[in-house]
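Protein modeling request. Please complete all fields; requests missing the sequence field cannot be processed.
Requester role: graduate student
Desired output: 3D structure, token encoding
Chains: 1
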Amino acid sequence: MVGPVKPWFQTPTGLVVIQRDRSILTARLASVSRARPQRGRLTLEARLVVELPANIRQDVRLRIVFPHGYPSRPPSAFILGGVFAPHDRTRHFMDDGSCCLFLPGVDEPWDPADADALDRWLDQVVLFVARQIILDRLGRWPGDAWEHGFAAYDQHVRETVGDDLAGHFYQHRRLALSTREQCPCGSTQPFGDCHRAVFEQLKTALSGRRDRRVRSRDAAKLAD
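Delivered output (224 residues):
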């Protein structure tokens, strides 16, 4: 009889990962609490100090949540307390209050095979805090920013192929296009030689990201 599956942090491999990642956290953060297991996740709290030029210094409390299946998936960071309020989309926080560090599947730097993945992820957290500090002082978000929800993926599609070809992408996203057909962009090249590769990359980025608005949009575009 097979017993219950152990959470990742109770497996021999997971224990090695915890020891390695804790050394990274203690080297980068001002303080790190003892990790608490909760429903297959591992949660700890820490203190991060970010220093910018002009003697600007910000001390923030973090909650770091290591999800099911870590390190295949990256952790999430939450900024605790009233700093950088409100924790909403105007400040690039997710609906659950976590920091929006990157767009998964598009510019996500997480590589589970990289022993320094957590270190690189912490770089993103530091950058996020630095941008919050600058936002408070300048009144605008420094650098590029994604839209929110599926609009961010729609932004990625349109920035990649343009507004005109984006309509063709949504129309053919779930349909088979022969590589020998003329490309829907209007060129005289076969689809396989012209835009097939980029369509496949976009389909991979959007894979599994379906909600009511996405279904409605696809249905409307297919009806056009």
